[in-house]
């Protein structure tokens, strides 16, 4: 009985080890393909993206006129949108309050376990207010963002996500290539550990870029709110204009830094690829990180 149980455990362990080995092999194959094929393509794609971006080619004075034909007309558009919102809210205020009140009653009935008759009566009333007016404002009530900076910020964020995914897979490939430490073959593991650290650093930078894009939208919304609250303060208008100019320049810097970091990383890893594949490799020449 005990022997059969032990055999079953051994069989289960072997099956599990085989499955894990299959997963590891697939992860290594994916990471290797991403390094040799996808990463160089991504570097070229980012380079073309920067070369084709017209905003990156403009001088500061030209950039201002391209972002806004007139900051005053943009502020006027914001003010008009807010006025439309106020009118829309005023028109639907009663139905909105009624809708909120009925939903509160519904939640109370769910907690207390109301009768079937009470639920049916409440449901009949709710049918009159199925649309939430303040959540479904028409387009004329929407305050628009600056379309050019919005496109640029979204493009930068998407790029950071793509690069982060690529680096994560390459990192896994290098990590899984490490031999067992207890078999005495960890002589040159410092090469692999060096590149794992570099990949983590670039990946962390991508996370900071995504956080910065989120902060950009939040800060811009705060500036617009200040303009709405105090339209007579000219400094707030200039603040918004300068913020959008700064966002474009910052995006340009992030694109260049991302492309350069990936290019340097790929070049260095390609020159030391033998050490990554075979950390036990011996050489008469002392290895120097490039």
From TrEMBL:
One Pfam family this sequence matches: PA28_C
InterPro entries xrefs: PA28_C (IPR003186), PA28_C_sf (IPR036997), Proteasome_activ_PA28 (IPR009077), Proteasome_activ_sf (IPR036252)
GO CC list: cytoplasm; nucleoplasm; proteasome activator complex
Swiss-Prot/TrEMBL keywords: Proteasome
Ranges of residues in domain Proteasome activator PA28 C-terminal: 144-283
Parts of the chain that traverse the membrane: none
GO biological process: regulation of G1/S transition of mitotic cell cycle; regulation of proteasomal protein catabolic process
GO-annotated molecular function: endopeptidase activator activity
SUPFAM superfamilies: Proteasome activator
Record-linked Gene3D superfamilies: Proteasome activator pa28, C-terminal domain
Family named by the database record: Belongs to the PA28 family.
This protein's name: Proteasome activator complex subunit 1
Organism: Blastocystis sp. subtype 1 (strain ATCC 50177 / NandII)
């Amino acid at each position: 009985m005990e022997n059969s149980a032990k055999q079953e455990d051994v069989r289960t362990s072997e099956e599990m080890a085989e499955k894990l080995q299959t997963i590891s092999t697939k992860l290594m194959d994916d990471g290797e393909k991403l390094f040799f094929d996808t990463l160089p393509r991504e570097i070229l794609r980012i380079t073309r993206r920067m070369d084709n971006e017209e905003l990156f080619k403009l001088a500061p004075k030209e950039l201002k006129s391209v972002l806004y034909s007139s900051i005053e007309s943009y502020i006027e558009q914001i003010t008009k949108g807010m006025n439309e919102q106020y009118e829309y809210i005023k028109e639907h205020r009663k139905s909105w309050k009624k809708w909120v009140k009925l939903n509160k009653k519904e939640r109370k009935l769910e907690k207390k376990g109301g009768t079937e008759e009470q639920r049916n009566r409440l449901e009949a009333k709710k049918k009159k207010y199925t649309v939430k007016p303040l959540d479904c404002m028409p387009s004329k009530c929407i305050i628009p963002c600056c379309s050019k900076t919005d496109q640029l910020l979204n493009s930068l964020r998407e790029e950071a996500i793509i690069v982060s995914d690529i680096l994560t897979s390459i990192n896994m490939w290098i990590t899984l290539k490490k031999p067992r430490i207890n078999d005495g073959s960890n002589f040159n593991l410092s090469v692999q550990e060096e590149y794992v650290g570099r990949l983590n650093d670039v990946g962390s930078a991508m996370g900071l870029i995504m956080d910065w894009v989120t902060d950009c939208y939040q800060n811009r919304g705060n500036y617009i709110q200040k303009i709405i609250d105090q339209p007579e303060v000219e400094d707030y208008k200039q603040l918004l204009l300068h913020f959008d100019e700064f966002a474009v320049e910052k995006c340009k810097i992030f694109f260049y830094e991302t492309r350069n970091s990936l290019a340097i990383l790929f070049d260095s890893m390609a020159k030391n690829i033998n050490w990554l594949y075979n950390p036990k490799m011996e050489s008469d020449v002392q290895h120097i990180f490039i």
